[in-house]
Write a structure and sequence with these properties.
about 210 residues, alpha+beta, four-stranded antiparallel β-sheet, 9 helices, 4 strands, about 55% helix, about 20% strand, elongated, disordered N terminus
Length: about 210
């Protein structure tokens, strides 16, 4: 859990950090995985750190119809950063991201469609249940590392990244199935709360999961 929290903090701040790398105003890249082979940073990494994170990776042609999750780690030691991100509990990390995203979407849908916050009651325990869900079909698609130095502070850091993908329809089906099971197993839900669940399940099946 400690590793996951740390990795998720990295996911939230890395776009800002590497935006500085790309502009070379505050941070400079000293080395990266492809440097010794004369290879540039891959498109998925540039999209992730220079765009809107995972959605920018999914917008690339090679990841069409895929949902992408990039896990990352920062440490002073390159090998430690790589080892930490490689040993992360990917399934748990992805489940937590999915749970947070689905709950955020559910709250927005409830307020937009009903003008209230019924979802707070309906999904009081759903986030925890979805955070513990398992998702099959995740694949490690690529990995990368880079070493940077802040020009002002002279602090040197190693950044490690791993890209995981899953078929979009496969993930949507699993999320919808998990929500259905949670709804059916919670006998205390009111009719209004069950309607919220059904709307969300229909939304997942038709529009799909979106970060």
């Amino acid at each position: 859990m400690k590793l996951f929290r740390r990795s998720m903090i990295v996911l939230m701040v890395i776009v800002v950090l590497v935006s500085c790398v790309s502009t070379k105003e505050k941070t400079v890249v000293l080395d990266h995985k492809g440097a010794s082979f004369g290879l540039p940073e891959p498109a998925w990494l540039l999209a992730f750190v220079g765009g809107a994170g995972n959605p920018s990776v999914e917008a690339l042609p090679e990841y069409r119809n895929q949902i992408c999750f990039v896990l990352s780690e920062i440490d002073a030691n390159r090998d430690f950063a790589i080892g930490m991100v490689d040993s992360a509990n990917v399934s748990a990390a992805v489940a937590r991201v999915i749970a947070t995203t689905v709950m955020t979407n559910a709250k927005a849908m409830s307020e937009a469609e009903r003008g209230d916050d019924q979802v707070s009651a309906a999904f009081s325990n759903t986030a925890d249940a979805m955070s513990n869900a398992s998702y099959t079909g995740l694949r490690k698609a690529a990995d990368w590392w880079m070493i940077t130095r802040n020009k002002s502070t002279k602090v040197q850091e190693a950044h490690a990244y791993v890209l995981y993908t899953i078929d979009k329809q496969q993930l949507n089906d699993q999320i919808a199935r998990n929500l259905t099971n949670i709804m059916e197993n919670n006998k205390a839900l009111s009719a209004a709360e069950r309607e919220i669940y059904r709307d969300l399940i229909a939304h997942i099946r038709s529009g799909g999961f979106k970060h």
